[in-house]
Amino acid sequence: MNILFATTEAVPFCKTGGLGDVCGSLPRELAKLGHQPTLILPAFRQVFESGLRLEPTEVVFQVPIGQKRVQGQFLRSQLPGTDIPVYFVEQSDYYDRPALYDEGGEEYRDNCERFTFFCRAVLEAIVNLDLGTDLLHCHDWCTGLIPAYLKTLYNDRSPFDQIASVYTIHNLAYQGNFWHWDMVLTGIDWKYFNWRQMEFYGNLNFMKTGISFADTVSTVSPTYAQEIMRPPLSCGLEGSLQHRREDLFGILNGADYNDWNPATDAFLGENRYDAGNFETGKAACKAALQEELGLPINADVPLLAAVGRLADQKGFDLIARVMQQWVNQSDSQWAILGTGDPKYHRVLGQMAAENPQKMAVRLEFSNELAHRIEAGADMFLMPSQYEPCGLNQLYSLKYGTVPIVRSTGGLADTVVNTTPDSIADGTATGFAFGEYTSLALSEAIARACELYDDKPKWQQLIRTGMQQDWSWRRSAGQYVELYERTCAKAQQEVLS
User: Fold this and answer.
1) Residue ranges, CATH 3.40.50.2000, the chain
2) How is 352-383 classified by DSSP, letter by letter?
3) What's 2-254+473-495's CATH class?
């Protein structure tokens, strides 16, 4: 099957979050299963700064955007280490900017125009580059117009009348919501600007459009697929999602074990380990991490960590309150890595300055340090308000760093809470809590620290987690089933 990924992010070309990891990893596994994936992205400035080779195709195209025609051209590359083609839509006025979507916390004011152009460029690529596409896999709001184009402006043109579409929601909170007069930019008939298809409280909504027109819809975990059916996580789209209930599927993201594997991780130096020797390997990594972060080297004190975007959604309001309590009242160490909301930069930075023997905060992005934290920490905190899938809990399981999570989205689907029964039957892999409160998080940490002192059970917990398989191979097989179902559905609609 020829599968075209329409996305705005793919590692290693450009990334702001988990979308980039998905679109950089899933195509590789699909290729191993015998399919022919191709990717197409905007040629953002970040793509040129990646240092990866880009070649001109000499294919130039024009598409109408409102009352004007805008020209672009296609560049070509490959996913490193594969022969999977990657195409880029070059249009410097739209994409040659410091960031992908926003600057200084403000979205680019012409985002509707920028990504309308991208959606039409994807369809132009299919014919101008002779891609032979069977199925379009569209990712998140920036590609939401593509399924609509397939069913409206392009539906009576070959080969578009034979192309099926899957639309994947990575985070429903980001919807591409624009002024209603921006509908003119799309070229789609105003009759589709209605409450069922493209209109959302008087505005044009790209996310709703994708959900409404795609042959099938997916999201990145089974639990999140259920959570978005109702407020508050439906973000106002519960009607559209409930209408597509029979065509909505939850497939967990996978972990890229080529990159995240303590047995082969180059960032760990000589301290690499696996499930067979993690006792000595993790002890060495912990000591090395404590030294790197300026914390006292102590094998017995629990080292808790969090890595990621410093934001309310990730539960850093809970983490900050609980850290203050635990630093004052217990013998523990804390490591935080990430950037985000300035208020957390101030609060966490001040706490670290006041408690240098117990807390290390690095307000930066560092892939290398993120790997060493996963290897050296004893516990990993993810108390998210919501988490469509989450990847760090999967990395933590592989590295033997026990996750402490709130039971939401993909966290609920991947971490088995430690109870007397789950310890006894050998299924426990971490600690989970339900209520979004600092008390619930603190109680989960207390349970973890209590088990930490019981070394045989703690090692059993680590070993069980490390033996889990959350690789992309597993997820890719489920996507293939979805693709086949989608193509059959689309073909049946054509025949009817």
Assistant:
1) 2-254+473-495, 266-469
2) HHH-TTTEEEE-S--HHHHHHHHHH-SEEEE-
3) alpha beta
Q: For the CA atoms of 48, 54, 59, 62, what is the dihedral angle to 10 degrees?
A: -10
CB 226 within 8 A of CB 220: no
Within 8 A by CB and 6+ apart from 298, the residues are 290, 333
List residues bridging with 334 in a β-sheet.
304, 359
- Residue length of the chain: 496
pLDDT at residue number 496: 66
The mean pLDDT value for 94-106 works out to 91
**Cβ neighbours of 151 (radius 10 Å):** 20
The pTM of the whole model exceeds 0.70: yes
Quickly state the pLDDT bin for 72 (edges 50, 70, 90): very high
Distance set, CA 482 to CA 101, 122, 250, 494 (Å): 29, 22, 10, 18
Q: What is the pLDDT of residues 248-274, one digit of tens each?
A: 999 999 999 989 999 999 999 999 999
Contact 57, 73 (CB under 8 A): yes
d(CA 176, CA 114): 11
Torsion of CA 51, 55, 58, 62, to 10 degrees: -40
Q: Which amino acid is at 339?
A: T
Query: Shortest CA distance to 376 belongs to which of 266, 253, 264, 290?
Result: 290
Given a contact cutoff of 8 angstroms between Cβ atoms, the answer to whether 168 and 136 are in contact is no
Does 3.90.960.10 match the CATH number of domain 266-469? no
Question: What are the tens digits of pLDDT across the range 417-464?
Answer: 999 999 999 999 999 999 999 999 999 999 999 999 999 999 999 999
